[in-house]
Amino acid sequence: MPLSNSDELVGLLPHRPPFRFVDSVEAFEAGASIEARYRVSGDEAFLAGHFPGNPVLPGVIQLEALAQAGAIAVLADPRYAGRLPLFGGVEKVRWRRIVRPGDDLVLALTLDRLSARGGWGDGTVRVDGATACQARLFFAFADA
């Protein structure tokens, strides 16, 4: 039976709080694309030090959120069930705006060049319709 429930899809991630950066899945096509969301609550422990009195979501966490969303799209594909997609590289990264507590991240990623060994994805993080981050992500599969 194909997965369609947002909680089931998020549950495919091997990540757990406090290092899970996807709250819900809005739309997806297994092995092809995903749109997911993460709300920056302000309670994330790392925000206390980045930066004290002026919390900013680190860019690397934005990339991690994109990668986690992409992992859901991959792991929802029966061909890759039980695999572990790991970062292999990042290209063409640009940050366009500051992300702060209270912001809702819309994580959109389209996969391409998917194979038994890994693949690529083009992703964008948007906040209030404006691009916050965009990148091309490479991942490789490991055994879970």
What is the tally of beta strands?
6
Summarize the main sheet.
6 strands, antiparallel
List unreliable stretches of 5+ residues.
none
Helix content: 10-25%
**Assembly category:** single chain
Kindly report the average pLDDT value.
Answer: 95
Alpha-carbon Rg, integer: 15 Å
Distance between the termini: 22 Å
SSE-based structural type? alpha+beta
Description:
The chain is α+β, with helices and mostly antiparallel strands. Helices cover 15% and strands 41% of the residues. It is globular, with a radius of gyration of 15 Å. The relative contact order is 0.21.
Which properties best describe this structure?
144 residues, alpha+beta, 6-stranded antiparallel beta sheet, 6 strands, 41% strand
What's the quick description here?
The protein has 144 residues and is of the alpha+beta class.
Fold topology:
Blueprint: H1 6-10, E1 24-29, E2 33-39, H2 59-75, E3 83-95, E4 104-112, E5 118-127, E6 130-143
Antiparallel strand pairs: 1-2, 2-4, 3-6, 4-5, 5-6
